[in-house]
């Protein structure tokens, strides 16, 4: 099923030529347009950065008209990946960024789906044409209301590919969203049908590679420039990450279930592990918490509710301090179905949030980003001194500031419904 949504996305401001913060590096970002750009890119089917056409200077990657340098590809290959970039297009400029490209055919676009880069206005393209800027070229058109800046001005682009979901963003708005792979990594029927109905059906393995290069197209007589090109491998371990869940048992965690004794059961019995997945029964209510304290960190985890058992409630408690009870003093990143990305302030924890979305102890998310019930979702939670940012499936939904900077536990709630967790990992920022 295709999901196409236009909405404002909160993004971190990045100054031209700026480096990466400690938190960004911990989250896995790498700058691909900096001083070492020529060592991170090479020509398609070439061993090194092109000797003509392309230049890497002043924090920008540029190609001139008729330069003849050919397409660029990253030295590295990626499966799940996120890429953010700024781009400036000359009049009638035509280019694209391809993902999961291999060098099995004559051109990058013959294996890699494309984020189209087109100067719509001077090229004469309709904003919602499947060949216009930010389209998933020839397969999915951009959504209505796309906002693009005129020729010669800088635009912001973003590609997000994770757990089968692909998104294209343009200037803070989601332009394309589609589920192209299932949980096993196989093409969905919709994705396979899209390819079969396009010109790409002539190219073996188009759009179905599990990994590949990212490419920037040299379309010939066109001028483009890119800066602040940042890429992170969403399937790779984070730099210096600590696995909080070993995929086997509750080592490193302590179960807190006050009513367990009343029900003649052990607190740990609420939790079990199967095939690397941590399963919480939901009853009795309580939580598991880390044995160690963490103050500043980047935390990633994936969760889902059992579709057969219905929607449910849970949460991730951050900087939990004080007495073990239901519920302990902490900042909660909500996991209630339909409300993931909300904040809950527990025990009058010191923090500030957007007053327009604050109702008592609850701060509503800016918008929804959850996948359908039963699908895996991913939280990325950045707890950095006095700030906490909540991202669900790659979209920032909430932010708090002036948060009490206290070392505390990380907790996962048992709150009345079965919920599954996996890939719980953390990078300390201290």
Description of the molecule:
With 430 residues, the chain is mostly beta strands. It folds into two domains: 22-233, Sandwich (Jelly Rolls); 242-428, Sandwich (Jelly Rolls), CATH 2.60.120.560. The protein is 5% helix and 37% strand. The strands form four sheets. Strands 1, 3, 4, 6, 9, 10, 11 and 13 form an eight-stranded antiparallel β-sheet that branches. Strands 14, 16, 17, 19, 25, 26, 27 and 29 form an eight-stranded antiparallel β-sheet that branches. An eight-stranded antiparallel β-sheet has the order 15-18-28-20-21-22-24-23, with no helix packed on it. Strand 25 and strand 26 form a beta hairpin.
Structural class: mainly beta
Instruction: Give a short account of the largest sheet.
Output: 8 strands, antiparallel
From the 3D structure, determine the CATH topology of the largest domain.
Jelly Rolls
Give the count of helical stretches.
Answer: 4
CATH classification, class level of the largest domain: Mainly Beta
- How many beta-strand runs? 29
What is the H level of CATH, i.e. the homologous superfamily of the largest domain?
Exo-inulinase, domain 1
Distance between the termini: 42 Å
Which of globular, elongated, flat, extended, rod-shaped describes the shape? elongated
Helix content: under 10%
Uncertain spans: 1-17
């Amino acid at each position: 099923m295709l999901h196409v949504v236009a909405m404002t996305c909160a993004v971190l401001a990045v100054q031209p030529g700026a480096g990466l913060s400690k938190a960004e590096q911990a989250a896995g970002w790498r700058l691909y347009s900096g001083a070492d750009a020529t060592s991170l890119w090479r020509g398609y089917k070439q061993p090194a950065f092109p000797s003509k056409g392309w230049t890497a200077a002043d924090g920008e990657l540029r190609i001139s008209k008729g330069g003849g340098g050919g397409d660029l590809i990253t030295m590295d290959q990626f499966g799940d990946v996120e890429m953010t970039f700024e781009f400036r297009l000359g009049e009638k400029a035509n280019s694209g960024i391809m993902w999961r490209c291999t060098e099995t055919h004559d051109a990058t676009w013959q294996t890699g789906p494309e984020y189209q880069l087109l100067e719509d206005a001077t090229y004469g393209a309709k904003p919602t044409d499947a060949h216009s800027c930010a389209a998933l070229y020839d397969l999915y058109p951009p959504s209505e209301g796309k906002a693009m800046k005129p020729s010669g001005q800088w635009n912001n682009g973003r590609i997000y590919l994770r757990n089968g979901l692909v998104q294209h963003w343009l200037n803070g708005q989601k332009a394309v969203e589609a589920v192209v792979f299932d949980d096993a990594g196989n093409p969905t029927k919709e994705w396979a049908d899209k390819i079969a109905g396009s010109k790409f059906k002539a190219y073996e393995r188009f759009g179905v590679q599990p990994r590949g290069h990212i490419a920037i197209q040299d379309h010939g007589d066109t001028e483009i420039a890119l800066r602040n090109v940042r890429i992170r491998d969403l399937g790779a371990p984070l730099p210096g990450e600590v696995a909080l869940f070993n995929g086997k048992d509750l080592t490193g965690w302590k179960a807190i279930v006050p009513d367990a004794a009343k029900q003649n059961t052990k607190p740990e019995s609420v939790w079990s592990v199967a095939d690397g997945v941590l399963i919480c029964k939901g009853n009795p209510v309580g939580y598991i918490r880390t044995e160690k304290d963490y103050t500043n960190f980047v935390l990633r985890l994936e969760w889902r509710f059992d579709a057969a058992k219905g929607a449910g409630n849970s949460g991730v408690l951050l900087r939990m301090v004080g007495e073990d009870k239901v519920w302990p003093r902490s900042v909660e990143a909500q996991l209630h179905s339909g409300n993931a990305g909300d904040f809950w302030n527990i025990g009058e924890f010191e923090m500030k949030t957007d007053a327009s979305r604050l109702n008592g102890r609850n701060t509503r998310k800016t918008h929804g980003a959850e996948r359908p019930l039963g699908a895996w979702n991913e939280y990325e939670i950045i707890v950095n001194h006095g700030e906490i940012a909540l991202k669900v499936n790659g979209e920032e939904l909430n932010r708090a500031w002036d948060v009490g900077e206290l070392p505390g536990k990380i907790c996962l709630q048992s709150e009345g419904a079965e919920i599954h967790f996996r890939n719980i990992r953390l990078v300390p920022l201290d």
